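Lab notebook, bench 4. Still working through the backlog of constructs that have no structural model yet. Next entry is a single chain of 246 residues. Request: give me the structure tokens for it.
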Amino acid sequence: MRALYDTISSITMTNEDGSFPIANSQTEFQGQLSKATGTTSTLDISVDDFGNAVFIGNTNATQATIRVYDYLNALQETETVYFDYQDTLTYNITGESRQGFIEMFHTFTNQDENYRLEIDLVTDAAALEFGIVRAGFAGHWSSPDYGWSNSSQDTSIINRTNNGARYVKNRQKIRTFSGNFMSLDHAEFMKWQDLFIKNANKNLALDFWDNANTRQIVFGSINQTPNKTFNNPGVAAITINIEESL
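Model written out:
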């Protein structure tokens, strides 16, 4: 699993739609969109700390060309990424389901402090849009143990009357995740504790289960301090719960 420590110091975009500014991408809400006036845009992202990852969530982009510059503004690498990973299933107010927008969690070569990213985004829709942009360092933990759970939470408002009738205001359903990660040493558990303390009540970009058939990319919060259980000598299970943010 990877969790991204965001350290963006500034971000701009070309072809910005003034009604949906780039500042929206720095909030805690994927539904608060940034938009371009056309089908393409270039993001210019400066990062204060060292890092190796970028996350773009809730977007209709189909392709991104990522250029990584070091602190001397020298080009370090260029890569084209295709947004072919759709993982979010959302529901409209009538309860009808639809495939959600695409999310990207991309890692690159470790960079020293004050590096910069240029990202060319392209969509085949009428106008480019995205909800969240994060860049910084992605820490890595051991893979999840078998038994990892993925469920959903209904945020609809339901009022019951004394005759048994129900009045329902349909709202979105969000994904929740819970399970164990195998920890081989105490230092790894302390990384989890540090992650929680620094990001309590904040949303994180998370990428876990690297296998293509089980991969999950989530923008959400860790809801409780991780617990540690020693199942075998030298091996511990870290219990964690994650709730997606829309």
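Notes after review: The chain has two domains: 2-137, 149-244. The first helix runs from residue 186 to 199. Flag for follow-up if needed.
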